[in-house]
Amino acid sequence: MTDRFVMLTLRPARLVMTPAILVASILTCASIAAAQGEPTSSQTTVPQPPRASIGIQGIAMAGVNWPSASKSLEAVGMHTKPIEFGGGAQVTNIWRDLFAQVSASRFSETGERAFVDDSGKAFPLGIPLTVKATYLDVSVGWKFASSDPSSNVLTYFGGGAGRVNYTESSPFAQSGDDVDTSTTSYHVLVGAEYRLLAWLSVSGDVRYRWVPDLLGNGGVSAAYGEKDFGGFHAGAGLRVGFGGHRMRKSPPPDADDTPSNEPREPSRLPARTQPSDSGTIVGSAYVYLRPDARLEPLRVLESGTSVKVLQENGDWIRIQFSDHVLGPRIGYVQRQYIQLPKEQ
Amino acid sequence: MTRRLLVVALLAGSTGLLAVAQQPTAPIEAPRKERLNETATPGVLRPPRTTPVELPVIDDSVAQSPWPQDFWEIDAATGARYRRGQLLVKFKEGASTPARAQAMQRSGTSRIATMPLPQNWELVATADASLEETSAALIRSGSVETVSLNYEARPFQFRPNDEGFRLQWNFDAIQLPSAWQINPGAKNDVIVAVVDSGMNTTGGTFAFRNPLGGTVSIRFATAVDLVSDGRIVSPFDFVYNDNQPLDTEGHGTHVAGTIGQLTNNNIGAAGVAYNVKLMPLKVLASSWDALFLNRPVGGSYADIAAAIRYAADNGAKVLNISIGGEGAAPTVRDALQYAVGKGAFIAIAAGNSADDGNAAEYPAFYAPEIAGVMAVGAVNRSLKRAEYSTFHDYVEICAPGGELSADMDFEHGVTQVTYDEESTLSFLPPGTALAFLRAGFRPTFDRFQLTPYQGTSMASPHIAGVAALLYSQGIQSPAAIEQAIKKFATSIDARKDECGAGLVDARRAVRGLGVSR
Q: Which letter does DSSP use for residue B487 in this model?
């Protein structure tokens, strides 16, 4: 693990560029993800299933850092995996599954000043040295619901930028000896959230943070050529709030009447010919486990797909369809998305 | 003054000596010197001598406090010093200007103009009455809330109380008082070997061969402010081949003092690494030794090489070699490599030949090729290369060596405790010394005084002392010590061949590095 960080730090030019590119990529991906679920004009003619409203969560976090400047921290006798504590707030469902988060975290480590010789060997000098870092991160990202409607798990990814305040202090310091500086950071993150109660979740995420050029101009970090104060962070959080725990997918846009050879959403099933008691799917239709549009859909059936009609129940039709993964399967579609045999 | 260009100069004129030293030597006659008196006479530290050897009187402006003697009073309760005739007075909130004036008038005080003080405080001058009476009168006025003495404030820095410390500008020049805050004088498990003219580890009367026939009794005293219980480790005299390296010149005592003079004990001067153990190794013969042993003044590379090896074998982790010569010294080079291989750092004086041909000096010449050995040049009080300091590519660092404008020039020399030369006359050439001996003069080596010297010999022990600080702090690789001294050196107005990496900065060296600064 450590070697990997070192490898990263040996490529400062790439590191400097990478954060901006990655953050931009994340935002682009988020837009694409949003666009895939965006309703078309045809959907205005059909009822929309309910969507979760904007939610707000407060977050308390603790985690472990794997700083990319691990050699420098090791040289001054500090933990190379410092513990970080923090908190923040997240606004969910800003637009579909987009969320924004502001968080602050901090770690403090005490070691001792050192000298590093030309071979890289560190000689601790017995003078206490305290390093404190405070991170303020602003993130945006996208959340993904599980395909299993009974699941309470959401996954998410995102990225953003922030500020890092970095201080370094020792006894016997004279004017200008200690360090107190702030600089810009960039990060990407990926994580998962598990809902315990309607208002309570736990989450875990991994983020990589870039803090370019905070180090490397002096001290042991210069001796090791470590310029970046970022690195990996793995943390766990407790989230308290309302709304936004689970995203409800909108009905899909009307599908093309002509079957496409291009693969669409993985869960969409191609149209198949069925017996005469079968109905025909009109437009793209969600299949639910129970007659409740608030649930997570099981599958999306393409327009023209023939299904076996088992039962009519008001606005819902119980059908049997052929799942390309699980074989014959039973579910419910909304009445307006199926043409019944008697109507054909 | 010239005689204080030290032993490098002694050796510089001793090409013949080196040739003699390389010839087969006769078996050593024992005893070369014999103790007559077992009583270890304590050395006497005398005030700086003025006459009769026509040494200039100390410049009082340097030797004395810059303040008048009655500037401070001592607070009997705390021992702290406060400004005589001054009080800090806090008037009550709302006390009018007339009320304040009346209170001061009745108490016999007057306001001293200062930059504005906070929250109704004023600094006042008192008349003849005692401060207690004045304070009481001020309080009685009803306008004064409280009164305080104007105590002395000092920099938060260790300033030793040794009487000679005020003359040691050389220590301030390398930020040593600040370094002492971090590392107060190294630990006592570091052994520093001083390869030089010796140091009196003991006292008493010793009998030497009298070149005029019979023996001559010479009195010695234990080096003042250098020797304490358990401090001296494996001393050896390579001139007399015994373990009593009596200094009959004073150079070794001065050098050893800069490295490890006992400090903050109200005596003598201060030393860079004042807690270390010392290993005095005598390899240089003075004029008196030359007479007693019928040999030339100075030393030989064979003795220096043997002393270096001896030091390394007996646990020395820092060596100072404030001696050298103009002849190539491969034997000494091998000894240096041997000692570094045993984990010892070595500081060597670069030489004093700059204004005398600027010849390369050995063994300093070998320093760049051995990581862990440093050749040390000298700067004067203006932190420029001293005129005598040899400049060559082999010079790796500089330290204060002083530059005397006159004898006993405390202002510009490196001051340490060594012999009162009046009692030793060790600066005399052997022929003259013999005449003095014939006339009944007997040198004594028991009177010490603060004496300013100049030379790269004086610069080198600064580096040895800083190396001892670093070693005791945990940098126990000679090469790393050298790198640290170079890395944290201060850039000064000197060419690279004059001062190498610059002027040693003890504070920065012992403070080391943080993560980012």
A: H
- Give the minimum alpha-carbon distance from A201 to chain B in angstroms, rounded to a whole number: 38
Cβ neighbours of B96 (radius 10 Å) = 10
User: What pLDDT score was predicted for residue A31?
Assistant: 44
Mean pLDDT of B364-384: 97
pLDDT category at B322 given cuts 50, 70, 90 is very high
Best mutation target, B156, B158, B486, B515, to test chain A (most A CBs within 10 A): B515
Q: Is the dihedral of CA B75, B81, B87, B90 positive or negative?
A: negative
> Between the CA of residue A119 and those of A12, A223, B133, B244, B480, what are the distances in Å?
21, 9, 69, 42, 9
**pLDDT exceeds 80 at position A311:** yes
Does the pLDDT at position B391 exceed 70?
A: yes
Written as one letter, the residue type at B458 is M
**Which of B490, B358, B474, B419 has its CA nearest to residue A112?**
B474
Minimal C-alpha gap between A221 and chain B (Å): 6
Distance CA B167, CA B163 (A): 8
Tokens for B512, please give them. Answer: 């080391």
Q: Where are the alpha helices (DSSP H) in A55-167?
A: 70-75
Residue of A nearest to B180 (CA): A172
How much is the average pLDDT of B343-357?
96
How far off is chain A from B478, nearest CA to CA, in Å? 11
B510–A129 C-beta distance less than 8 A: no
CB–CB of B480 and A123 under 8 A?
A: yes
State what percent of residues in chain A have pLDDT above 90: 46
